[in-house]
Design a protein that fits this description.
The structure is a homotrimer of 354-residue chains. With 354 residues, chain A is of the alpha/beta class. The first copy, chain A, contains five helices and 37 strands.
C-alpha cells in the first residue's frame, strides 16, 4: 500500500496529517521502532523512545508535528500518532478473522434456543434452553452458555468462556478465553458459626461494545443486576463483585478486583492490581493507580494512589517524607543535642552567677 | 406467597420475628431496597442504606427491632435481617436447578470409573480411570476429572472445572466455572543455575460443604496433602499453594493468594487481594484486611491490616502519623527555629554580662 | 528400593553423599518430616523445621553435613538436601504419566495441521489450520489450539488450555489447566472519548523448558513478540502484558502481574502478587519481594520490596522508622516541653537580673 493511500485514509478518518519525504513508498506492515524493517511503518508516541528514531529501520515513522526527525527519514506528522498508527493498523492488517464453523455438528444447542443468522458456533459448545444468540455472533469451541442467556449481534466469545444462566450481553461484546460471567458471588449469612448460602438470584448485564480479557470472573448480583456500561474495556484476571455497577468507557487493567455493591462512574481508569472495596461510589473520570487499595468514595476527575488510596499529590508528599524519615530522625537527635548543650550552657551560666 | 407464611417459615427456622402492618400482603420476590417494586420483600442490614427506607417501593422490609420505619410501611422486625432475608430467599426462590443430562452420550467416562446413582454428567466431560463420583453429583459440560479422583455425593462442578489426578472432594462441594484443583505447585530445586522440577506427588483434599469461586487454582502438595477444611468458602481467582492447610468455615475473598506450607486456623477471614507468605501459622478467627501482606504468624482472633500485615489498631495509628508527617516536619522546623532563637538570646545575654 | 541404591543414584547424578546408619533399609516413598512413616525418606532444608527431626517417623532423613541428628536415625548427609530429595523423588516416583489417547476420535484436527509422531491428543480438543504439533506432545481434553500455532516436541498442555493464533511454543513446554496464551492485550487509542481497538497483530513466543501454572494469561504483542525465555517457571494466575520480554530461568510466583513492553532479565525472581509497570527494564538476577509494586527500572542482582518497590534494606529501614513514629512523635513533644522549660528558665533568669 502506497504511503499516500494511508495518508489519505487517515485524513478521511479524522486524523489530518502531512507527509515529509517520499509519499510513494510502499508500506507492507506496521511495527515497533525497534523491530521494524524495510517497508514497515512505525510511530513515536512515548517520548521515552525518542532515541530509537536514529536506529529504526522503519521506512516511515508517524510523529507529532514538533518532533525532530534525524536522517531525513520519511515521516507522517500528525497530532495524535497513537491514534493514527491504530487507524493505520486497522487499514493495513484489519482485525482477526475467525475460523468459520457455522453451526458445528459437534455443538449441542437446546431446541428452544434461538440462533441468529450467520451465527458461527464451534464444536464442543453447549447452549442451554431459551438462549438467544444474535446474528453474526461467534462462539468458539468449549464455550458454555446457560439457559435464558441473551447474546447480542456480532458478539465474540473466545474458547472456553462460560456464561451463567440469565446473563445479558449487548451487541459487539467480546470476551476472551476462559472468562466466566455470572457465577455466584460470595454471599453467605453467618448462622450458628457456619455459612448459610444466600441464593444468588440476580444476573449480569453487559452493555454494547464491552471487551473483557482472559480469565476474568464477573459475579451475578444477589438481587438485581451487576452492570457493565457500554464501551468499557477490561484486561485479564479482573474480578467484579455482585451487584457492582460500572459506567461507560472505563479502562480496567489486569488483576483489578472490585468488591460488591460498588458504583463506578464513566471513563474511570483502574490501573493494574488495584482493589476497590464494596459499597463505595467512584466518581466519573477518577483515575486509580496500580496496586492502590480504595477504601472510601472517590471524587470525580481526581488521581488516587496507595493504600489506602489517597489523592496522588498528597500520597507522593507523604511518601517523600517517609523516605526522608532517616534524615528526620537524625534532625531530631541533633536538635536534642543542641537543646542539651543549651541547657548545660544555661545552667553553667546560672551557676556561675556570683 | 402470603407474608404470614414467610413470617411463620422464619420463626420455624430459628428467626423469631414480628410483623408490623398487613400480614396478608402477597410477596412475589426478594429484592434490594433500591430495585424493589410492588410485591417485593427487601431488608436493611447495613445502616449506610437507611435513607433508602423512605424511597423504596418494596411492599415489605425486614429490619432490626429498633429501626424507625417511615411511612407506616409493612415490616418484619427480626434480630438478624441479613440471615432472615437469606432464609426468605431460599423459601421464595430456592437454589439454582441444574439442567438434567443424566450421563450425556457426549461425555467420556473411563470404564473403571464408578458413577453414583442419579449423577448428572454433561456433554464434553472427560472422567478418567478409577474415578469415583458420588450420588446426585452434577458435572457440567467441559469438566475434566483425572484418574483416581474421588468426588462425594451432591457435588457440583460448574463448566470447565479441571480436577487433577488423585484429588478428593467431600460431599456437597461446589466449584464454579474454570477453577483448577490439584495442578502442580511451583516446586523446583536450583541446580546448575537452572530449575530442576520436583515431582509433585501429593494431592488436594477438599472436605464437605466447601464452595469455591471461578478461576481459582489450588496446588496439589509436593508430598502429603493440601487440605481445605469443611464449610470454608472461596470467592474467585484465589490461589492456594502446595501443602497449605486451611481450617473449617473460613471466608476467603477474591484474588487472595496463600503460599505453600502455611496453616490457617478455622473461621479465619482473608479479605480481597490479601497475600499470605509460606510456612506461616494463622490463628483461628484471625481477620486479615484487604490487600494486606502477611509475613509472620498471626494471633487467633485479632485483626490485621497493611503491608507487612500489622495488628489493625497499630497499623491505623502508624497510618495516621504518616498522614501527619508534613505537620510533624513543620513542627520540627519550628522547634529548631525556637532553639535557634533561644541560643541567640542566651548568647546575647551571656555576652551582655558585665 | 534399598537406601544404598538411592545413595549411589545421587552420587552418580552430581550429589555426593554419605549414609550414616543402615544402608540396607528399604525405601518406599518420599514424604515430609511431619507426614512420613516407616519406609519413607524425608529431608531437612529449612532450619525452621529442625524440631521435627525428633518427632518424624521417617526411616531416613537427608540433612546437611553439619546437622545434629537425634536418636541415631539413619541419614544421608549431602550439601544440598533440597536438590537431593528432588533427585530422590524423581528416582522413586517419576513424573506424572499422562493418559494415552493417541489421536482421540473426539478431537477435531484441521486437515492442514501437522501432528508429530506419538502425539497424544485427547477428546474435545480443537486444532486449527496450519498448526504444527511436535512429536510426543500431549494435549489434554478441552484444549483449543488456533490456526498457525507452532508447538514443539514433548510439550504438555493440560485440560482447557487455549493457545491463540500464531503463538510459538518451544520443546518441553508445560502449561497447566485453564491458562490462555496469546489473547489480545489491553490496546486501545482514545478517540472522541471512546476506546478505539488497536489490532493486536503480534504474537507470543515461549522458548524451551518453560512451565506455566493454571489460569495464567499471556497477552500477544500489539506488534512483534511477547517473549518468554527458556527455562522460566510461572505459578498460577500470572498475567503478562503485550510485548513484554522475560529472560531465561526466571521464577515468577502466583498472581504476579507484568504490564506491557517491559524487559525482564534472566534469573529474576518475582514473588507472589508483585506488580511490574510497563516500559521498564528489570536487571538480571533482581529479586522482587511479595506484593511489591515496581514503578522504576531495577538494578541487576539487587533485592527490592514495598510500594513503590525500594531497595530492600532501605525499605526495611523506612518501615522500622514508620513503626517508631509514635515514639518519634512523643520525642518531639518531649523536646518541645524541654525547650519551653529552657525558655522559661532563661526568661526568668534574664528577668531576675539585677
Amino acid at each position: 500500500m502506497k504511503l499516500s493511500v494511508i495518508s489519505e485514509f487517515l485524513a478521511a478518518n479524522g486524523f489530518p496529517n502531512e507527509i515529509e519525504g517520499d509519499s510513494g513508498v510502499t508500506i507492507r506492515a506496521a511495527n515497533t521502532l525497534e523491530d521494524a524493517g524495510e517497508g514497515d511503518i512505525s510511530f513515536l508516541a512515548n517520548p521515552k523512545y525518542t532515541d530509537l528514531l536514529c536506529k529504526t529501520r522503519a521506512s516511515v515513522v508517524i510523529v507529532k508535528p514538533d518532533v525532530d526527525m534525524p536522517n531525513g527519514k520519511t515521516t507522517i506528522r500528525c497530532a495524535d500518532p497513537y491514534a493514527a498508527i491504530t487507524a493505520t493498523m486497522i487499514r493495513l492488517h484489519g482485525h482477526r478473522e475467525h475460523p468459520r464453523w457455522d453451526r458445528d455438528e459437534h455443538a449441542i444447542i437446546a431446541p428452544t434456543a434461538t440462533i441468529g443468522s450467520d451465527a458461527n458456533i464451534g464444536p464442543f459448545v453447549t447452549i442451554g434452553e431459551n438462549v438467544r444468540v444474535g446474528s453474526n455472533a461467534t462462539i468458539y469451541p468449549g464455550c458454555f452458555v446457560a439457559e435464558n442467556v441473551n447474546i447480542g449481534d456480532d458478539v465474540t466469545l473466545f474458547p472456553n468462556v462460560v456464561i451463567y444462566d440469565g446473563s445479558r450481553l449487548g451487541d459487539r461484546v467480546t470476551i476472551h478465553a476462559g472468562s466466566v460471567i455470572g457465577e455466584d458471588g460470595l454471599g453467605y449469612a453467618p448462622v450458628d458459626d457456619k455459612w448459610l448460602k444466600i441464593p444468588q438470584v440476580g444476573r449480569v448485564v453487559i452493555e454494547d461494545d464491552v471487551e473483557i480479557g482472559a480469565c476474568c470472573a464477573f459475579n451475578r448480583a444477589t438481587l438485581g443486576e451487576t452492570l457493565i456500561g457500554a464501551g468499557t474495556k477490561f484486561s485479564d484476571s479482573v474480578v467484579v463483585g455482585h451487584g457492582t455497577k460500572i459506567g461507560e468507557h472505563c479502562m480496567i487493567v489486569a488483576q483489578v478486583g472490585i468488591a460488591g455493591s460498588t458504583r463506578i462512574g464513566h471513563h474511570v481508569t483502574l490501573a493494574g492490581q488495584a482493589g476497590i472495596s464494596g459499597h463505595l461510589t467512584i466518581g466519573d473520570r477518577a483515575r486509580v493507580g496500580a496496586q492502590s487499595g480504595v477504601m472510601n468514595d472517590l471524587e470525580p476527575g481526581a488521581d488516587y494512589l496507595g493504600f489506602p488510596a489517597t489523592e496522588s499529590a498528597r500520597f507522593r508528599r507523604q511518601l517523600s517524607l517517609v523516605r526522608k524519615l532517616p534524615e528526620m530522625k537524625q534532625h531530631l537527635v541533633d536538635l536534642e543535642s543542641e537543646v542539651q548543650r543549651l541547657r548545660e550552657q544555661l545552667e553553667n551560666h546560672v551557676d556561675a552567677r556570683p
